[in-house]
Amino acid sequence: MVAPSGLPARAAKDVEKYLLDDEDAVVATRRHWAVLVVPTVKFLPVFLAGGWLLVLDPENRVTSTIGMLVVLAALAVYALRIGEWWMRHFIVSRRRVLLTSGVVVRTVTLLPLRRITDLTWKETLFGQLLGYGTFRFESAGQQQALSEITFLPHAGALYRQVSGLLFTSDWGAASGGDDEGNPEPASGGPVATGGRRDTEPIPGLPLREP
Q1: How far apart are CA 154 and CA 141, in angstroms?
Q2: How far is CA 180 from the centre of its chain?
């Protein structure tokens, strides 16, 4: 197993934990920090309001208690958002796409590369300014849980890397292999132990006359 160089410790741990021994990570990244902008905008007014109630009248237990509860709740929700951002990683190997998520309960969603039929890359105006984009995967079969991944950093470079895996004939790419990304067996019939094909005569045995 090989992980990209310079990988954060948490992402390297996910690569080591969720990829197979003979499976190398081509891409492993956390989502862009811009994903925290909306939670921060929601957190600040609630936190400030709670702090205002807390210090409004220290002698009033009702307002102080309510203020303390609001501050603690706001901090807990915001910490959970940050933790989720910290723990979620987008990983791509030559076999599949994985998205790890969850702080208390870890979840791994995967999509074999060979099932991906189309890849859409969307970059909004803010995405162009801040450097993030959205991937949308179209796949054969039923609706996949891993169909859209937002706030991916350096989306242009990621798009070229993932496209290189999808549209080349390298081993394990989307063009060949089974659903798990394993390479297809060589044509010419099943191969027995030692490289001998089942249709070949066994060495040392006399040939039958027709």
Answers
A1: 29
A2: 16
Q: Give residues with Cβ within 8 angstroms of 58, minimum separation 6.
A: 64
Summarised one tens digit per residue, pLDDT across range 162-196 is: 888 887 655 444 545 555 555 555 544 454 444 44
Burial 169-184 (b: 16+ CB within 10 A, else e): eeebbbeebeeebbee
Q: Tell me how far apart the terminal alpha carbons of the chain are, to the nearest angstrom.
A: 52
Residues facing 25 on adjacent strands: 93
pLDDT in tens, 61-110: 899 999 999 999 999 999 999 999 999 999 998 888 999 998 889 899 88
DSSP code of 197? B
Which one, of 80, 89, 79, lies nearest residue 9 by Cα?
89
Q: Give the strand order in the sheet containing 148-153.
A: 116-122, 132-139, 148-153
**Tally of CA atoms within 13 A in the half-sphere of 122 that contains its CB:** 10
Tokens in use for 118?
A: 């189309």
Tell me the two tokens of residue 67. 């203020």
Question: Residue 154 is encoded by which pair of tokens?
Answer: 């350096």
Amino acid at 177: G
Residue with tokens 């076999």: 95
